[in-house]
Amino acid sequence: MAKNAIIIGAGPAGLTAAYELLQRTEIHPIVLESEDFIGGLARTANYHGLRLDMGGHRFFSKSDRIMQWWQSFMPVQNRPSCDDLLLGRSLPPEQVAAGTLDPEQSDRVMLLRPRLSRIYFLRRFFNYPLSLNLETMAALGWLQTFGIGMSYLRSSVFPIRPETSLADFFTNRFGRRLYRLFFRDYTEKVWGVPCEEISAVWGAQRVKNISIRAVLQQAVKKSCGMRDRSVNQKHTESSLIEQFIYPKFGPGHFWETVADEVRRQGGEVQLRHRATQLLWDKDRIVAVKVVMPDGTARTFSADYCLSTMPVRDLIKALQPEPPQRVKIVGDGLVYRNFRTVGLLVPRLKLTNHTRRKTVNGLIPDTWIYIQDRSVKAGRLQVFNNWSPYLVQDWQHTVWLGVEYFCNENDDLWKLSDEQMVKLATRELEQIGVIEKNAVLDGCSFKMPDAYPAYFGTYDRFGEIQEYVDRFENLFLLGRNGMHRYNNMDHSMLTAMAAVDNIAAGVSSKENLWRINTEQEYHESE
Length: 525
Known about the structure:
35% helix; 3 domains; FAD/NAD(P)-binding domain; alpha/beta
């Protein structure tokens, strides 16, 4: 009989692993998803025909393997989308010459999207990462700009050593003044604790090579006409890219397409199957117990087990139980929850003062960091700019996603969907983003355990890693599966590496844990 692989979670890592197993082995993948939707954090919710991307998932990677994998399911457009046509926006000549894929005719297509993310601070926009140009300096004021420069020089000459906290990390790369102005408040909204309590490892995995020096170098390249206009943009720092590819109907549609293909090729993807126990014997996972949609229990035998479930839950699920010291570390791992509020409005109060042409003067941002301590909202998505196909009446309405970060027991997490819509409406009115009483419709969605935190017992995570790596047929994958704040492509790479190992008969997990620690994988959102 063919061997099987129990894959816990139908997000990017789990579905990538399932598809790769089908392509490269005789192993039968069985994907068990506790929720009733595909994609995990990369889902796309559908509310009255309005599609909402949880978190804003740009499809961009420094890995050729990932870029080719995405486009094997959904090739990049060769003809203009509806907003391209309206704005007279042209595609790169080599893209037009490559085929005839038309977003107006096909749904399985990636759009080529211009990228702009900015910081909204003091009711003004600042580019993110900061562009230290005349416009930015004028908005800050020359005295403030001079202070930022002096602060950066001081940090360059006298860096903080050892660099232990996220506050140290940002200060060393941007100077203390710039860190406090543009990084501290938003970061503390995301995590709910001071930056001094967050490990510098978070910055090493998320911000990577970005610093004032990198921003200045990019500015020089732009002024000299040295922009990388290719689809892959391999020669541009990840945080400085100017375009990315994006599925016509959002990331959830992409992962639903992958799930359909897994099923078509004989794999299984089971929704509302919650893994509750991982049974092991002699350093091997032998079975996985799940709760079925009807509340009954079922046990799946396992030749291999690939887990994307939160590590905290994995440790609790292992039977026999791990040693007490491992359980203590698992119980102390912290996760940050996430709420997105969708608001449909006829227009924004904000106007487009950039050189980019947009529909009805809409601001061209894909997402905006809200650096304002007077509101709880952390980030704002403008879904019209991600894909006009996410919005039913994209020429006459604006579809927004307002993002909030909280803990499971916070008052914010306990608010009803209706209360969240009212809160987001009030806060966007307060900071001048939308008109009073302008909201046409709204909705709210919850995503628990969205962000694995780099505090709590994270400093002892090595004890968990050492313990779980003893199970030769257990592979931990993805963001929550490895308790690592990976991007989507990094999560997929862990899945690919796991299948590489399985196909080669390798039980070591060393190559999985190296992903997103090496320079070529560096990227930030």
